[in-house]
Amino acid sequence: MNEVYNYLKDIGTYYLATSEGDQPRVRPFGTIAIFEGNLYIQTGNVKKVFAQMKKNPKVEICAMGKDQTWIRITATAVRDDRVQARQHMLDEYPNLKNMYAADDGNCEVLYLKDATATIYSFTEKPKIINF
């Protein structure tokens, strides 16, 4: 999991895919943190992406590395409603404090459960990481 965290943290922007009915939805994300042994993302609960994850928590993340490798992660997004988890994310990304607070009723953090990350390369076999 640490390798996946470092990969996404180094990139800065990754793309999160959800579904809305039969339509896939993809958008850029930039938050990633490890808290109590889980990999977390963050969003606001007024956003469509949060409603989509509540209805169908299966997500995929995709990003291109600076070394021309790319990663795809399949997982189930699980909401963590603890203030401590939200505060940890805000401490990792202080710029979010302009938009969110740990107890504002909007900030949401979700951890990735039953995740499989695959790192691909044009020159090597794919590397699979389960967490």
TrEMBL record:
By its UniProt entry, which InterPro entries does this protein fall under? Pyridox_Oxase_N (IPR011576), Split_barrel_FMN-bd (IPR012349)
The residues covered by the Pyridoxamine 5'-phosphate oxidase N-terminal domain are: 7-89
> What is an example of a Pfam family matching this protein?
PNPOx_N
What SUPFAM superfamilies has UniProt attached to this entry?
FMN-binding split barrel
Q: Which domain of life is it from?
A: Bacteria
Name this polypeptide is given: Pyridoxamine 5'-phosphate oxidase N-terminal domain-containing protein
The lineage, from the top, is: Bacteria, Bacillati, Bacillota, Clostridia, Eubacteriales
